[in-house]
Specification:
Elements: E1 5-7, E2 13-15, E3 22-25, E4 28-32, E5 36-37, H1 59-69, H2 74-81, H3 88-103
Antiparallel strand pairs: 1-2, 3-4, 4-5
């Protein structure tokens, strides 16, 4: 929605336009897709539940959104150049294994949407 705002992990508030791709739920924007998570997507020493996302975002939309908002991140850099769609599921499974190995916990099954 035009003019909707998101508080991002970098502590800044960004004003969005309808052309920008976001991840949202009924409560609003959760993150700027392929660029930066929203403030509520972060974790700290009290975090007990983690959702690991593996996604494929349009390179052109990602680049335009990043330029418009003035955000430079590693995620934006990767998604602007394209990522291997065949590594989506193996990548999330590897990330899950690393979290379990270093932090402990119990994984759930990988879901593909």
């Amino acid at each position: 929605r035009d003019g909707e705002k998101v508080q991002a992990l970098d502590g800044r508030e960004y004003t969005l336009t309808p052309e920008m791709c976001v991840i949202a739920d009924d409560n609003g924007v959760e993150s700027i897709a392929g660029i930066m998570g929203g403030e509520h997507s972060g974790c700290d020493e009290n975090t007990t539940d983690v959702l690991i996302e593996s996604a494929l975002w349009d390179p052109i939309t990602t680049a335009r959104t990043g330029r418009t908002l003035g955000i430079i991140t590693d995620a934006r850099y990767r998604f602007e150049r394209g990522v291997d769609p065949e590594f989506m599921v193996p990548g999330v499974e590897l990330a899950t294994k690393l979290v379990i190995d270093f932090c402990g916990g119990t994984p759930t099954e990988t879901e593909v949407a």
